[in-house]
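Reading a protein record of the kind used here takes only a little practice. To see the layout at work, look at the sequence and tokens printed below.
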Amino acid sequence: LQLLRHFVGHSKLAHGAVGFHNVCGTIMAEEVTEQLQKTTVSEETVDKADETEKPTSVVELNAEQQARFDLIHSVGEECVQEDELKKLLTWCEEPICYDGFEPSGRMHIAQGVFKAVNVNKLTKAGCRFIFWVADWFAQLNNKMGGDLKKIQAVGRYMIEIWKAIGMDMDKVEFRWASEDINARPGEYWSLVMDIARRNKLPRILRCCTIMGRKETDELSASQIFYPCMQCADIFFLKAHICQLGMDQRKVNMLAREYATSKKMRNKPVILSHSMLPGLLEGQEKMSKSDPNSAIFMEDSAQIVNSKIKRAYCPPGVTEGNPCLAYAKFIVFEKLGYFEVSRSEENGGNRKYEQYSELERDYASGTLHPGDLKPALAKHINEILEPVREHFAKNPEAKRLLKQIQSFKVTR
């Protein structure tokens, strides 16, 4: 307890030195500091990360707030909880959204295009977005062989891609884990310690999927510590909304459990986006270590065409079809339409304004894979062209790409 009080002392000093952009950030910051000062720790541990929570109340929104809610909500496959998100919008002018990413290799199209689309929606709705460049986390997870310099080079490359693809940077902030933690160590490590003390090992092991690991894998001590740190990030960054993929759900729920155990007034809202499948049959998600499972942001047009041509796309099957998933989450989200070019005898040209129309035609057989795939490849190449041009003409981006391509990706 003396050690925890020592860390809390540092936390208050560090907190005083940090400015916050709006009243909602100040409220969250004061709440976390207040809760850290409570040194009595309950022995009771909550282990219900996958349990569905029930809405707590009905929140009425005015027209402007409802429009913001609808745009924010459109980002997620799941929102925990919708009523809490609505309540947040009634008192917070600029909610802080957060996503953390390991710089661990080349960026695939879901992380590049889909993420940029979602961030632009959130900033348009009045949110501020913090990217937590998790360089220390990548090192803990043995990415790039644990070489921090390589990991940080990958982080800079990823930022270059988001700039090139059209992410609106006005309300986006990139913060490096190694720098921020070293700047405010007392505040950060007291949070990590408190989270670790309040959870039993089986609960933490259940979160190992956030690292692409299984509970049954042989884990290093650093990988067991990783979920406690990721949970702490949310409170350290004063985030109101956790906007990560469904694969990060377990640790985000751990953060809500922690907020409950600390009797915090406001839990972080979880807004989880869908996960895009890999291109080949049976691949639930893309993999950076398998280049055939994904399209990467700087792939040439020829490579894109080849990968789409070989992609799993059974006629009439919509469930688990990666080509349809790409059309829905990449093309429609970025361009707003999907255009198919074909001869009159095969149905003629067709411009789809809604994904539901495309899916209906594909399910009925009106649209054949032989027509869907070339159209998909054409649209993806159109979307990726600004990125290719950026990495071809910008000297620093070109140097970074060459450097990244020389790195060996480690799982």
